[in-house]
Amino acid sequence: MSIEQQYRTRAKELLSAGEVKMVIGYGAGTTAERRRPIFITSPDETERLVLDSACIANLSGYLVTEGLLSDEKRVAVFLRPEGIRALNVLAAEAQLDPLQVVIIGFDLPKGELKSLQGSSVDDFTDLLGALKESTPDVDGRELLEKIEKMSPEERFAFWQEEFSKCIKCYACRQACPMCYCRRCIVDSNQPQWVNTSSHTLGNFEWNIVRAFHLSGRCVECGNCDRACPVNIPLRLINRKMAQEVLDSFNHFAGTSKTQEPVLASFKKDDSETFIL
Amino acid sequence: MTKILFTDKLDSCVERWRSAGMTVIGPVQRANSSVYDAVKSASELDLNLVLTDRSIKELFFPQSEPMLRYAITKAEINTDEFLPPSGPRIIFGARACDASGLAIDDPLFGWDYKDEYWFQRRNESVIVTIACTKADEFCMCTSLKLSPDSTKGSDILLRPLENNKGWQVEELTDRGREAFKSVADLLQEGSDPAAATVTVPEKFNADACAEWLKNPENFESRFWKEISARCIGCGSCTYLCPTCHCFDIQDEGGSFEGIRRKNWDSCSFALFTMHTSGHNPRSTQSARWRQRIMHKFNYFPGKFSANSCSGCGRCTRECPVDMGITETLQEISKLSQ
After folding, report:
1. Quick one: A8 and A128 in the same domain?
2. Helix (H) or strand (E) segment spanning residue B314
3. What is the pLDDT of residues B89-137, one digit of tens each?
4. Residues A155 and A243 in one domain
5. Distance separating alpha carbons of residues B71 and B255, to the nearest angstrom
6. For B225, what's the count of Cα atoms within 13 Å in the CB-facing half-sphere?
7. A229 reaches B (C-beta below 8 A)
8. Mean pLDDT across the stretch B203-222?
């Protein structure tokens, strides 16, 4: 039986047994290459689920939808390792109770569909721990290396050109599972902390605020990068920040549901004396 | 015999228009994204695209535009108005859906207050549209009673030749004729046949949709929640749309000194209708998506007798979760049967 068929059966069993009220997965999209998020609530609909190498989007962001999860209303969700890391970060930041989520895990190493054993975040601890030690597979690594070698002026010019395209549609924010703030700083308008204008300064403000806010939290699922309608290579910023956090604090976001947020926790014996 | 503009003469045309003081604009690639932008030579133009990522509207209604500078002192209040940069422009290589989008928005920007930012640019721009010989799965102009060779909103329509060596020239307006007079000697009379325009299949019945939308019973239909369940509430569809026209006015700076700007806004955002009290009449994403569809296919046609959609398909093409107008209207077409 194909992995897709196995997982449809599993989704059907979970819904039939009442273990979950909803399955969040992938369905066929507008074109043959596209997949779209679907929400299955009836065992009869599980045949609509699709699972293949086009199922790239991280669906964990839907879990923080207001009123979705409860002890009585658990939800199953198709997640790749990045999605499971996102779930851990959301749990560590008290945004959801991971016991209310059933993971249907899969991975796409080199585009090949592979099933992952387990259903609760704790079942994947070893897998996620190993990811921390591995070299991340980044689309655009050559460009990243090129940017690293640039002078600060050249680098500024590079990002200036990229950010000049930004239209502030906030697709990056909306697609991001970590951007769950009820009211984003850019939407706080009394006073207006960040310019809403998408001129160069406003675009720098937005993209840099977001990069800092995601540092140590981003799981590099790529949702923002794929969502961007003007193709700003946002993954490169997130990769850079993740590497900085790893090098500086030995922190890899989302390895466990109790992991302390690296930039939002402090220790009395912190080596930086200015903190106390 | 028809007038033909051969491809190898295009660069001379660009040069001619530029030397006459016109800004020449067309579809180009900019940092891995396609957009209409100014060019210095024809070689910069990317005329093979089905459609640019970004729509033509931003040439007339930019994403952020300064309106006035203010300075308040104890003695007086000073304001300096900004007006859009003036000067003639020729937009070469627009698509029919984009050009139509401009014509759709003209009555909106002029029905009571005449938006001088929009109309100054409209009056100074010549739109040269190239009929489409290819389309993609997202194109839907024919569902909106337009076509790949619609003349709506265009000053000149070019039909690509079968041999791909140029275009048949159809002059549609005086403004178009005027701009092409200056390059008359670069055109040739010829009988080269035009290539067939692409066939874009009809995807939904817009009239049936309009009837369904007008029925008040459907306002609270469960359909809205179901169709928009996956919407993540970004503004990508509205900002890429050639006809979406909502904006917000923001004072940037301090209480005593700053710049008042007109910035794009989107009905997809929760903040769009948020009241000062904290109450939001469109508190859910489904209510916001319903508003977008109602506005385009019910309220706007009620006021201006045209759908606020020209069928470019960008909403679906770029949607992070594969939503869009096509799917919604296809589903409404089914419901209205």
Report:
1. yes
2. helix B314-317
3. 999 999 999 999 999 999 999 999 999 999 999 999 999 999 999 999 9
4. yes
5. 9
6. 6
7. yes
8. 96
- What is the extent of the structural domain holding A92? 3-133
Is residue A274, in this structure, part of any structural domain at all?
A: no
- Separation of alpha carbons B119 and B285, rounded Å: 33
Q: How far apart are CA A81 and CA A77, in angstroms?
A: 12
Cβ contact A168–B32 (<8 Å) = no
Helix-strand-coil percent breakdown of chain B, rounded to 5? Answer: 35, 25, 40
Please check whether residue A128 is in contact with residue A84, taking contact to mean a CB–CB distance below 8 angstroms.
Answer: yes
pLDDT for the residue B85: 84
B171, exposed or middle or buried, with CB in 10 Å at 0-12, 13-18, 19+?
Answer: middle
Q: Residue B336: what pLDDT?
A: 87
Q: Where are the domains of chain B?
A: 2-190, 206-335
* pLDDT band of A275, cuts 50, 70, 90: low
- The pLDDT score that the predictor gives to residue A254 is 97
Note whether B54 contacts A39, CB cutoff 8 Å: no
Does pLDDT of A276 surpass 60? Answer: no
| B268-275: average pLDDT | 95
Same domain, A17 and A124: yes
Out of A37, A162, A198, closest to residue B64 by CB: A198
Q: Please report whether residue A275 resides in a domain.
A: no
In single-letter form, the type of residue at position B148 comes to: P
A54, A24: one domain: yes
Percent of chain A with pLDDT over 90: 84
Does residue A157 sit in the same domain as residue A228? Answer: yes
For residues A12 and A109, membership in a common domain is answered with yes
Number of domains composing chain A: 2
Q: Are residues A77 and A174 in the same domain?
A: no
Nearest to B41 by CA among B5, B7, B15: B15
- For residue A231, the chain B residues in CB contact (below 8 A) are 31-33, 53
Last residue of a domain, one of A82, A113, A133: A133
Predicted ipTM beyond 0.90 = yes
pLDDT band at A268 (very low <50, low <70, confident <90, very high): confident
Beta-bridge partner residues of A27: A36
Most A CBs within 10 Å, among B30, B50, B51, B63, to test the A interface: B63
Q: A86-90, A187-191, B100-104, B178-182: which range is least confident on average?
A: A187-191
CA separation for the pair A80, A95 (Å, rounded): 20
Per-residue pLDDT at B201:
97
- A161, part of any domain: yes
Cβ–Cβ of B323/A36 closer than 8 Å?
A: yes
Q: Tell me whether residues A175 and B232 touch, CB distance under 8 A.
A: yes
Average pLDDT, chain B: 96
Residue A40 lies in a domain: yes
Cβ pair B230:A38 closer than 8 A: yes
- Do the Cβ atoms of B64 and A199 come within 8 Å? yes
Looking at the structure, tell me whether residues A129 and A181 fall in a common domain.
no
* CA-to-CA dists, residue A204 to A163, A199, A208, B171, angstroms: 7, 9, 6, 44
